[in-house]
Amino acid sequence: MRAVRTALFGRRARRRWIHLILGGALAMPYVFVGSVIIGPLIGDDHVLGSLTAQLSSFAVGLPLAAVTALFPLTRPMSVAAVRALCGVPDDALAEGPARSRAARGRTAAWFALHLGFGGVISGMSLALPPFAAVLIALPFFSALRDSRLGMPAAFGEPWVLALSPLIGVASLVALAACAAVAGGLLAHWAPRLLGPTPADRLADAERRAADLAVRNRLARELHDSVGHALSAVTLQASAARRVLDQDPEFVREALAAIEDTTRRTVGELDAVLGVLREADGARSTAPAPSLAADLDGLLRRTRAGGLRVSATVGMDPAALPPLVSREAYRIVQEALSNALRHGGDSCVTLRITPAGPDLTVTAENPLPAHSPATRPGGGHGLRGIADRARLLGGAAEAGPAAGVWRLTVRLPLMPPKGHA
């Protein structure tokens, strides 16, 4: 009994009832248009006074509603109402306007069903409660019996009067049952008619892929810029502390390098966060670092941390394409950062040379004597380098070779179209 009461009058049933009433309200303009068409056909100017004329107007209005449902905003409006009132899971419904002819057709069918069921239930909701109230009160008020209110003569019989309250209550229960069934049918059909089509699923997958690409790009940029700066500043401060009393000139150089590194990193961080601001229409004005703009500065700041860097550059960095110059800078930065973290004060040999249609970046440093070549749980920087190279159509290799740790990256000087 409790399950029946919940099914007919529970919170979900009441919300679906409201959804049906909303459909009835939306149906009214189409019914009025239908009455304008039906009136001349039946020769009656008072269409709304005849039940048959009303039903005919309703039948004419529903196809008109289906036609107007082809407008783009119909599906988002219907989906919002279903989510709020019908208890349908969010992932079972599509986002945005219908993109295909089939999706628009299903939206039109849904809109007609919603307005059709809603119009019937709304009419019953307006007519049955007053009728049921009269039936329930009929045995107890003689004025109601005397007025008859257009009721059949049988309602004057004693046995009918005795049953009229039960009939009134039964009519209210029947109304609730009709509303529950109609609401349940709409909730059952909603995923089929308003659910995502293959085109919607493809568009959603593309959005997720784009979001993931932005997140990966942010992760790489933060790892390379901020991670390198923190490693460099830590080693520079450590080196300055060790020789604080013996070599004041080196300490001054280290402090200057720390100041320069942190200042540049703040600018780079602003550029990275500008990727987030682009979603709001605001772009950062801080330029991304590149080999052409800052290779010498990167080498100078790295050497100030105690790492000996032997660099060979086989071309003018300013002649590189901007995209290749930016990505190569980050790759060199990560290679030097790894050497700072794991190589101590060893020497790094860096070569940046053209090789046919590619730019080759090679970094070598001696393997540490007492520490692993890779950190447990680490390797994010190497993955970032590989990602950068792959996105430009190149490749990256890293690993121990003949007593040294060697990183070799190949970047096409003409990246694939679509990268910027």
UniProtKB/TrEMBL annotation:
It comes from Streptomyces alfalfae. It is an enzyme of class 2 (transferase). InterPro entries: HATPase_C_sf, Sensor_HK_TwoCompSys, Sig_transdc_His_kin_sub3_dim/P. The chain crosses the membrane at residues 20-43, 55-73, 108-141, 161-187. Its EC number is 2.7.13.3. It catalyses: ATP + protein L-histidine = ADP + protein N-phospho-L-histidine. Keywords: ATP-binding, Kinase, Membrane, Nucleotide-binding, Phosphoprotein, Transferase, Transmembrane, Transmembrane helix, Two-component regulatory system. Residues 215-280 form the Signal transduction histidine kinase subgroup 3 dimerisation and phosphoacceptor domain. GO terms for molecular function: kinase activity. This is histidine kinase.
